[in-house]
Amino acid sequence: MTRENDKTCKIAEEGHQRFTSIEHWLEPRLFQYRFIIMIAFLVVSAVFAWQAALLKPDASFQKMVPATHPFIANYLKYENELRPLGNNIRIAVEAKNGDIYSKEYLDTLKAVTDEVFYIPGVDRGNLKSLWTPNVQWMEVTETGLNSGQIIPQGFDGSPAMLDEVRANIARSGRIGSLVAADQKSTIVQVPLLEIDPDKGTKLDYGEFSERLEKLVRDKYEAQGVKIHIVGFAKVVGDLIHGAKAIGMFFAITFVMTVVLLLWYSRCWKSTLVTVFCCSLAVIWQLGIVRLLGFGLDPYSILVPFLTFAIGVSHAVQNINTMAAERLSGKSDMETAKLTFRQLFIPGTIALLCDAVGFSTLLVIEIGVIRELAISASVGVAVIVLTKMFLLPILMSYVGVTDACLRHQAKKAQSDHRVMRMLSRFAEPKFAKFAVLGALAVFATAFALNRDLKIGDLDPGAPELRADSRYNRDNAYITSHYSTSSDVFVVMVKTPAGECGAYPTAEVVDRFQWEMENVPGVESSTSLFTIQKRIIANVNGGSLKWQALSRNRFVSNSAQRMIPSELYSNDCSMLPVLLFLTDHKADTLTRVVQAAQAFAKENNTPQAEFILAAGNSGIEAATNIVIKQAEPMMLALVYAIVALLVWWEFRSLRVTICIMVPLYITSALCEAIMAQLGLGVKVATLPVIALGIGIGVDYGIYIYNRLQCFLDRGMALKEAYFETLKTTGVAVALTGVTLALGVLTWVWSDIKFQADMGLLLMFMFLWNMVGAIIMIPALASLLLPQKKAA
Question: Fewer Cβ atoms within 10 Å of its own Cβ: the N or the C terminal residue of the chain?
Answer without folding.
Answer: C
